[in-house]
Amino acid sequence: MPRRRVLAVAAAALLLGLLSPVLAHCDEHGGGKCSMDMPMNATKLAGEQPEGPQSYWSLTNHSGLMYAHVALEIIGWLIILPVGVMFSIAHSRYTLPTQFVFLIVNAFALLLGVIYNHNTPELYENNAHSKTGWAITWIASAWVFMGLVQVYTDRKNAHSFEHTVSESQPLSAEAMAQYQRVQDMQLPNPSRWSVDSGQGTERNSASLFGHSRSPSTESENEQFIGQTRKYSQDDDDEFEDNPEKRGFLHNTAVDKFLSRNVARFYVGRTFKVLRALYVIIDRVILVLGFLAIATGTVVYGGIARGNHIFNILAHYIKGSIFLGYGLLTLGRWMGAFADFGWAWNVKPPKEVVGRRRAAVPSAEFTESFVIFLYGCTNVFLEHLAAWGGAWTAQDLEHVSISVMFFGGGLLGMIIESRRIRELLNSSVVLSQPASHYHMDDSWQAPKSYRFSLNPMPALVILLLGKMMGSHHQSSMLSTMVHKQWGNMFMGFALARAVTYIMMYLSPPTSFLPSRPPSEILTAFCLVAGGITFMVSNKDTVAALESYDLDAMFTFTVTVGFTALLLAWTTVLIAIKGWAARRENTSQFAKRNAGALA
């Protein structure tokens, strides 16, 4: 422990020694930030800083520790952790090593943060970042621990299953031949893994293969592959003999201890609960990481104090929703949720993907429902910052926008209702006898009915962008920043309109993703607009004005970060696909490895 403490202090001193001269120079001439401007202009900027509580952003003492803390957290939560999540979804052998690397990097970042807090005054009392950061760290640690437990429990189950089979009655030649036929075919099963993301790219994913199956083959598949899935995961039956499968704990004392003791405690219902919690954390851990980063920007910038917290919350929450919407749109273009029919493809029937996934509503219905839900709830939140005070014209404008979301979302859900569409056709259908209706091709449903063409979500966001782009703000900079994300949302709507035109002229005919190129534009506009939405809060705009930064600064930084984020997201999905193919050893998957390239 003393040796570690000495190393930590030495590292902190080294970082501080390297950065102190630069930071001191920046503090003297740039008001706490480095600048290439003339000294006279820098003095002017320093004098224009707003009066109020000091923030960590303007604090130069031990700032090197803070920069190192931020850099390590970005590396851990935006680079290493997403890769670990992708490996986990793909059931890759590299999951645990990546998770442990993340824990190590995050631990160093936390250590630097603790040292920084110990050596600097408390400038943001009772802040949310410290509490949420530690809570999310414990959740991530529990996630890694549960993954480790699952590995050793699955190994124990696989070993027990093999022992049971070897001790039971010998397999007949007929049964062995039947099993070999199933292994050669390895047809997809309608059921999925319990931790399948539903993105249509996992191994054995029925949404990837639209091939028909005979009843005999299907029954064989369910009999043997179902048993394989129950007792073995990712070739766990080879885990004992294959050093690569066993990973970095192979034949260590920790490995032997876990092999002997884990399966004793985590069995039956306890193991099922553990696996369910692991799957849930797998899906939300990145969102929790984003929450920690968002609260970190608030505390570091010293914003959202007092009554301003409502304005910050509104912009951060709404902007985050559009940011997530953009990433989901990019995922749809890449082929995510193809088994739901969300990847601009023909929705696979229940015989291919199962009854539960076939019952999932369309993406347009989901978008309309979210818009409707936002309109319902936000009507009561627009006046929250001035509760008890007089209603202003701006409050009424915001409430009107919420009403537009309510009505537009409701209309979008109505359009997506099959029952409603059938009722709308009643006047035409009832005008002809039933015999003509079933025999004449002229009475059959058009091809466009097979695909959802619902413009309401795009229309609502188009109008929102137009309104906010013309919305009066307290300063010219605030007005221009609002106009930026308003124009981005309008660009999303126009790009989505291009997608619908292409889909109407040439409806999709395959279960595979069609990947319309216009959807890349929609994703880019949504992500960039969402980030700019978050930045357009009053406190951040005031800080930009105090440093004499214009709207072009926010625009260039936002679009640059958006391009990097979308590129990294695409790489992550590709990593998941690579890991899934590497783990899938079936002959069928190997023969069809390039089908979706």
UniProtKB/TrEMBL annotation:
Signal peptide region: 1-24
Keyword Membrane: yes
Ranges of residues in domain DUF2427: 60-150
Keywords: Membrane, Signal, Transmembrane, Transmembrane helix
Pfam families on file: DUF2427 (PF10348), Ytp1 (PF10355)
Location of region: Disordered: 189-245
Polar residues biased stretches: 189-230
Entry annotated with the keyword Transmembrane: yes
TM segment ranges: 66-87, 94-115, 135-153, 284-303, 323-344, 365-386, 398-415, 488-506, 555-575
Entry superkingdom: Eukaryota
Protein YTP1-like C-terminal domain boundaries: 289-577
Protein name: Integral membrane protein
Organism (species): Delitschia confertaspora ATCC 74209
Taxonomic classification: Eukaryota, Fungi, Dikarya, Ascomycota, Pezizomycotina
